[in-house]
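Hey, I'm writing a tutorial for new members on how sequence and structure tokens pair up, and I'd like a real worked example in the thread rather than a made-up one. If someone can provide the structure for the chain below, I'll link this post from the tutorial.
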Amino acid sequence: MSQSQSNSHEINTAAPSAATIITGGGRGIGRAIALRMAEETAVLVVGRTEDDLQTLCQEINNRGGFADYLVGDVSKPSTAKRAVAKVKKKGWTLRHLVVNAGIGKGGVTHTFDRKLWKEIFAVNVDGTLYFSQECLPAMMEQKSGTITFINSISGTQGFKYDAAYTASKHAQLGLARTLSLEYAKHGIVVVPICPHFVESDMTRRTIAGLVRHRGMSETQAEETIKNTNPQKRIIPAEEVAEAVALVASGKLPSLNGNPLMLTGGA
């Protein structure tokens, strides 16, 4: 994040009355979301790499915010259970869930490794379900809450050589739409955010793949990715974070169940 971006908001240093759980929160999009949501609530970030999580939480806490982390695999139901328990133990009130953790790897569909297919679904779909299941009871009790899934443009259309990721994101989108119908009566808003290519490790791996498989330079590969967006850009992670903050603000409850597209018109 640039200096100007990091100073554009101030963290609320008052004792938190609300908390946000963010999966995949250590770097990239998850990090940007954590920094943005820390301006409004306490945050619990969940991920696999403890060093990244520690560094992020230290930055938030040093700025007067409230942050803690949990190391865990989102594809295991116990991780979601431990996350919710940790929020309760700290005396925070769970208001928002942001499911950001996701993995993907492309390949020709008829030879795609079935074990990898299951791993992608375990993180992108099963993990989404587990965290939703654990967070919903508290939100139902307080009759409010937001659940945001960081989905993808891949959740709304097909892409060649990306069957597992695309199918998993379609499944996640279907889950979001179903939850929005089931839990609207409890004051819970569920929104899938569907961005185009975002500045992230996943996008950088896509660029590296173009370099390897198509013989492009890194600059050419990056331009190829940019050109898939009508605005000719890779979306900054901070834009996704602002969309999450908009959902959490409660100002547009009618977003419930509707994909929030961040695609520049694609």
